[in-house]
Amino acid sequence: MVASRPIRDAGVVLVTETKPMTETLRQAIERCPAVADKVSVRTPKGRMPHIIVYNVPVGKYATRDKEERWIRRLRKGNTLPEGDISVRFRRKAKNGTEDWILALAPEVFKGISKQGRLNHGFSSLRYREFLEPTRCFKCQRFGHMKSQCPDIAGPDYCTKCTGRHAPKDCKAKRPTCRNCAEYNSKTGARTPTRHTVRDQTCGTYLRVRDHLVLMTQYGPDTK
């Protein structure tokens, strides 16, 4: 299993490395007498394509009405087809700007420019597809946020090693990725572990990112 995260109604999402692994896990759960009559297993809905739009001015589009106006201008300036465009969240950026993460209907994603820039009024905004796995800042695992972490007791885990302490207090001479170390322990694999959990060459990070691609509904004749 690559990642997990809790969801509403006492549910949990389990992320496997491949589709055959998903089916094996499903069969194991459904055939287990201890849990078969207590849980149900289903495949989650696909993920909409996401993009990150860089350097949107902070405060200029703070309200919901202004946010919708921003989206209408984006749609008009790029002659985008009908279909849902929504702001999922914003991230603080440099020089009084924010980076906006948008979810797009497949037909809208297919219609945007592939040149890495989007027209917006008299300006042009840089963007790229957003495929960054969610990582919990408490347990450092992928698939959920800190507010959803099931491991609520005790201190946070370190980003540099497998211990439970702040990174600034870490005494480890070399980094050890908690996620890759656990993956090796569970599977017998030999994934490199000499990196932090933040490293974007991390084997676990790359597996989860690849799963995001598989779960994304791009629509026909796209990707």
Task: Please tell me about this protein's structure.
The structure is a single chain. The chain is an alpha+beta fold and 223 residues long. It folds into three domains: 1-43; 50-129, no CATH class; 146-215, no CATH class. Helices cover 25% and strands 20% of the residues. It has helices spanning 19-30, 64-77, 106-111, 178-187, 203-215, and strands spanning 3-7, 11-15, 50-57, 85-92, 97-104, 117-120, 123-129. The strands form two sheets. It has a five-stranded antiparallel beta sheet with strand order 4-5-3-7-6. Strands 1-2 form a two-stranded antiparallel sheet. GO terms for molecular function: nucleic acid binding; zinc ion binding. Keywords: Metal-binding, Zinc, Zinc-finger. This is CCHC-type domain-containing protein. Residues 135-151 form the CCHC-type domain.
Give a brief description.
With 223 residues, this protein is of the alpha+beta class. It is 25% helix and 20% strand.
